[in-house]
What does this fold into?
Amino acid sequence: MAEFTPINTQEELDRIIADRLSRKESQVRAEFSDYAEIKEKAEKYDTDIAELKGQLEASNQTATDNEANLNKRIDELTAQVKQYEDGSLKRRIAKESGLPEELAGRLNGATEDEMREDAKALKSVFDATETVPLRDTEAGASANDTRAALREMLNDIKF
It folds into this structure.
């Protein structure tokens, strides 16, 4: 260990302090020599983060739009399935009630019971009306009867 020498003048003190300051400055400069490089990297990271945030927001917006479109499509398909189920139910009820299949679409009601009641009411209307045949449906009808009917019709027509 070096022997202690007392400081007698201001110049000696200034030289010793300047010496210590220059050593400390070189030590600090050595410690922070890569400051510019680190600062450059930090700025690059900041721009990368900003860019990635923009991409994330765009992706989130796209995902939200896709989800909305998907929900809309699901609603459309659900409504279509409901329509097919209602049509199938109406045809089945019409068949069970003895109604022609063409009238199945005319059945009304929100529930199966309401549709069955409507089918009964519609069936009662068809059962109540009596249809008159357009021609003689008895087994004994022959070509002569047809000729006689035509002659009678022609005789009834007067010009």
